[in-house]
């Protein structure tokens, strides 16, 4: 399962070259359910951006490096996660540059 997601991750996140505005952070799933969708949007936005793991998932007990290549110069984002068990999580005004990582847990 992890390999399927990592292949998708490499295709999705590494297809373009990095720029100064790209933001990298570690996404860890310590919850009991797989993350099936992960969205980020700048905190000033009214809408969620595309699913960063579209077609993949982040299984419980795994972590990945995430790259946000939206051309923005902000570090403050909102996150939305959807889980295989139907649960959702929203978290707001996160300084992902300062945090360096985000962990899901039960």
Explain this structure.
This protein is of the alpha+beta class. It has a single domain, classed as Immunoglobulin-like (Sandwich). It is built from two helices and six strands. The chain has a three-stranded mixed β-sheet with strand order 3-1-6. The chain has a three-stranded antiparallel β-sheet with strand order 2-4-5. It starts with a helix and ends with a strand.
Summarize this structure as a short list of keywords or feature phrases.
106 residues; alpha+beta; Immunoglobulin-like; three-stranded mixed beta sheet; three-stranded antiparallel beta sheet; 15% helix; globular; Argininosuccinate lyase; signal
Largest sheet data: 3 strands, mixed
Q: Which topology does CATH recognise?
A: Immunoglobulin-like
- Helical run tally: 2
The total tally of domains equals 1
| Highest CATH level, the class | Mainly Beta
Order of helices and strands: HEEEEEHE
Unreliable segments (pLDDT under 50, ≥5 consecutive)? 1-19
Provide the β-strand percentage band. Answer: 35-45%
Q: Which structural class fits the helix and strand makeup? A: alpha+beta
Molecular shape: globular
Instruction: Tally the beta strands.
Output: 6
Largest sheet, spatial ordering of strands = 3-1-6
Protein name: Argininosuccinate lyase
Keywords: Signal
Signal peptide: 1-20
């Amino acid at each position: 399962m992890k390999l399927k997601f990592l292949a998708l991750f490499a295709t999705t996140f590494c297809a373009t070259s990095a720029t100064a505005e790209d933001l990298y952070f570690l996404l860890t799933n310590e919850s009991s359910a797989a993350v099936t969708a992960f969205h980020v949007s700048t905190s000033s936005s009214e809408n969620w951006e595309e699913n960063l793991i579209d077609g993949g998932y982040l299984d419980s007990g795994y972590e990945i490096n995430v790259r946000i290549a939206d051309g923005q110069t902000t570090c403050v984002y909102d996150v939305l996660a959807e889980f295989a068990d139907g649960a959702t999580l929203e978290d707001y005004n996160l300084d992902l540059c300062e945090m360096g990582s985000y962990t899901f847990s039960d």
